[in-house]
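User: Round two. Same drill as before: sequence, then structure, for each protein.

Assistant: Same drill it is. First protein:
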Amino acid sequence: MSFASVFNKLHGQPSSYDKKALYKMGKTLGAGTYGIVREADGPTGKCAVKIILKKNVKGNEQMVYDELLLLQKLNHPHIVAFRDWFESRDKYYIVTQLATGGELFDRICDYGKFTEKDAARIIHEVLDAVSYLHANNIVHRDLKPENLLYLTKDANSSLVLADFGIAKMLDSGDSMLNTMAGSFGYAAPEVMLKKGHGKPVDLWSLGVITYTLLCGYSPFRSESLPDLIDECSSGRVVFHERYWKEVSKDAKNFIGELLQPNPDDRPTAEDALNHRWLKGETATEHDILPDFQRFMAKARLRRGIEMVKLANRIEALKMQEEETESSDLSADIGKAAIEGVTSAGKAPTDKSTNASRRLSRAARSAIFREVVLAKVKEMKQEEEKKAAEKTLTELSEKEH
């Protein structure tokens, strides 16, 4: 046993903690409810390390073990690969393949042209991964553009599905889950209504992604949970003539089949893979990039505001073992937030990065005001969500 191992053991560290010395942590890639994701140099090269604070999952440790077990079972070209894991006294570390090519929607905005055929090819790759998961009785439950990443910046890079933090393994092919899951705007109606759900929730999310991919905006735009539930449950998907007139009927048909309020009416992932639109034969060569970029520019501004809030969240995590690194992370994310706001709607350049460092007091004040407004809006949505949940609970009690 090495001196380092003895030292770690004396300080109450688990035996697997010795592996931490093999990884040199780098910049922060993102943050969530339970911890952060950092880039790192490891024994096999660059990788991503998800760091989860144990105090944030106290009583729900099985969630972490489930994710570990699930990741180790996966082997698919369009799913991020598992590398290793270890733990400290107060953190779990999950090491996966590093995707450096950027998020799907950001990558599209940097293209010179993006057609419906390109969209069909992308959705086919994602659906292939989903079909693989479902064949292994796994439901991802959090399909959204932010979880679709390119491995490298190469033009022919593979697209991979990431973040299996709330994915679940089913006991059988038709078993159901009952916990809330998914992201606002992408979660299926049965999830928001707290009904039992299973594999069809991934098909719904993919329908929302496909719609957004072809126009740049979401099919469901309500900002409160009760209104969103009503909108999603109506079964009415609108294809606005101005933005959809050049898109093929097969694409609209594919989306319509996925966005069925009743999960039993949605196709299986395997059946959806055989849809005519995904073969690319009827998809048009119409360039949808201009409209997509226009809508994404607004989304990037919102993301800049979210990244300012993200910096505060990272600071709040108080990573005890890496306090100096934690403060560096907040600084990095804060700078990235400013860069994201100043470069909204266009690819970042050295010039825009330098300009962001000299951001005026007025601009900083504007960002601060937006953050405050966003926080107020967030609190209001949380109140509405609680009210909706209370109403659903009362309705459920009346039914029983």
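Second protein:
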Amino acid sequence: MSKDYTPDSFKVLLKKLVQSPDEFTPEDCALCFRHLCVQGASEAQAGAFLTALTLSGLESSAEIVAACAAVLREHAVSVQDLIPNPSVAPEHGMWDYRDSDKEGDGYQGLVDIVGTGGDGWDTYNVSTTAAVVVAGAGVRVAKHGSKAATSTSGSADLLLSLDCRLAFPVSEVKGFLAHSPFLFLFAPHYHPSLAHIAPIRRNLNFRTIFNVLGPLINPSRPQRMLLGVAKRDLGDTFAEVLRLLGVERALVVCGKEGLDEISPEGETWTWWLENGEITKGEIHPTRDFGLPSHPLSTVRGSTPDLNALTFNSILSPHTTQPPSHLSSPVGPDSPSFAAINDYVLLNAAALLHVSGKAASYKEGVAIARESIESGGAKLAFEGFRDASKKAMGEHIDQIIVEDDGGVAAKNGTVKAWLKARRDRSQTPKELNK
């Protein structure tokens, strides 16, 4: 415990929050969070603070949320220098960014796709799958996530079912993006200062400000983000918080059904942040993406193991038979492979647009399809999976992938489909014949 942050100094702040909430400032809240991060408040005080903050309604203030997120970012484990030099020829087993970095507006930084959770729809792990598809196009994705809190399968649950390792030493994370544009940061490993807060939150058994902070505290601090919220009134708050945190470009979305993703069923409310300006709008699967719409019941998720089967089928370029749990839907509202595939394309396309890789949502759909059909998405995932195992000291057999002029290959070979798209002389399907 720091001598500057003690239960006695916390008392003063707590009294102000309870007795004069109108005078409780973002700076006061940030100071409270600094106490929490160094265990400078007792468990009773921490519980009282979270309760009072909830009852005051201040947790919906963008300035308050941004102040708290900034403190948690300060106390997160540092993960700097993640991006390898893109101009250097890759060594064997490393990803070649030199062609893909020429696509779009040239952004070479990190992106993230994340939702607040708590929407109650329990849909398929679309953000994790979309992140891998986007990475297959050469966009550097640093996804920050954890195990399920309100759904059947969280991002970490899915990746564990896909034979990935998430307990690798934090010191190893710097080398991951050299092997794959997809990186997953398991939240508990990067926020040790919050470990003692978890049992307090469980005992309170109601939503607190921590429920909205998760998507904002990615330790890699991506400058371009797709962020989903489960309630429309959170859209304004999150867009403003991202602006206050200095995020360069972001799209905050809320499906009109109360979905914290882009809805495959109909309209989605949007808040586009760029150059410090926020623009509100709406998007629709058919009108803006050129994709058919699907009821939310058709993109319902399942257990992590069954979702892993769906994931592998989506990333297999020439899937002819979907997994058995999706191959014979009981009715038109049952989960279907086609609907989930479109759901992934929808959200991947939006992230590709936010990342600057795609000039529009429809172009994003085309690039997402290419990522899957070329094998790029699958290789991006395999690169992360194998790197996670190596970081745990496990032996991985090296398979040399020859450049056949068709599939997107790692191991330093060139992605021919990216060249073809640039000169528009061939399509990915023609390349793969």
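The two ends are 64 Å apart (CA to CA).

User: Perfect.
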